[in-house]
Write a structure and sequence with these properties.
Blueprint lengths: L23 H15 L2 E6 L7 E7 L4 E7 L4 E6 L11 E2 L6 H4 L4 E2 L2 H4 L13 H9 L5 H5 L5
Parallel strand pairs: 4-6
Antiparallel strand pairs: 1-2, 2-3, 3-4, 4-5
Length: about 150
């Protein structure tokens, strides 16, 4: 069962330690490796900026363009339509392309569309804090993707 770790929402209580951070350089390296594997190019990479809790990139391949999200705290990768890379719209997640394996080879967890669209009840949420649950309920998040890749403030 997939586990959502403490801080994956980007929130924590005043007495909780800050969650980890994924250096945008690590994500950049993964994007370039993935683009090379796809025979494509990296069009853009943007570091997470508050309130968005994820880095973004767009990779162009001979077949199409793919938006890539990287959680700012944990090495979690999701694919979206290229136009949705900056601000995620509900249900914009896409299936991972074959070249997503380049991210896994660099230590990232590539989250498939099925997992991202799953209800929170389908994953292990035991590590989430009370502060995170307040945000989840306040923002009415119901899926893994909405919880992990958010722009809540």
């Amino acid at each position: 069962m997939f586990r959502l770790e403490r801080g994956v929402t980007g929130f924590w209580g005043k007495n909780d330690p800050e969650p980890p951070r994924v250096d945008v350089r690590m994500f950049r390296g993964g994007c370039h490796a993935a683009a090379l594997a796809a025979g494509g190019t990296v069009e853009s990479i943007d570091e997470a900026v508050y309130p968005r809790g994820y880095h973004t990139a767009v990779v162009a391949t001979p077949e199409n363009r793919a938006g890539i999200l990287c959680h700012a705290g944990y090495p979690l990768i999701a694919f979206v339509a290229d136009s949705a890379a900056s601000w995620l719209e509900p249900r914009m997640f896409r299936d991972s392309p074959a070249w997503a394996e380049a991210f896994a080879e660099r230590g990232f967890t590539v989250m498939g569309r099925e997992l991202l669209e799953s209800p929170l009840t389908a994953v292990d949420t035991s590590a989430l804090t009370k502060a995170e649950w307040r945000q989840i309920h306040g923002w009415k998040a119901t899926t893994v993707g909405e919880t992990v890749f958010n722009g809540w403030d």
